[in-house]
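We now fix the convention by which a protein and its fold are recorded. The integers have meaning only within a learned vocabulary of local backbone shapes. A complete example follows; check for yourself that the lines match position by position.
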Amino acid sequence: MTSASVVLREWRESDLEALSKLRNDFELQALLMSRPRPNSRERVRAWLVARDAQEGAVFFVMSRGEGGGALGYGQGTGV
């Protein structure tokens, strides 16, 4: 899915740095009703792989343009 400025796409290895920052933002994680805790890059990668494998769930990265880095992410379950 794309708009003039934002693309929804699958995650990439190059997104790990930005997604790690988001997963280590304890205030943000508390707002998302997640249990805030430190996350290494490997832990974030494992989390992303698990999201991809989860039945009935979707996960996407929001980026500026197709080649842009991750701005954020969205996920849903029961779909």
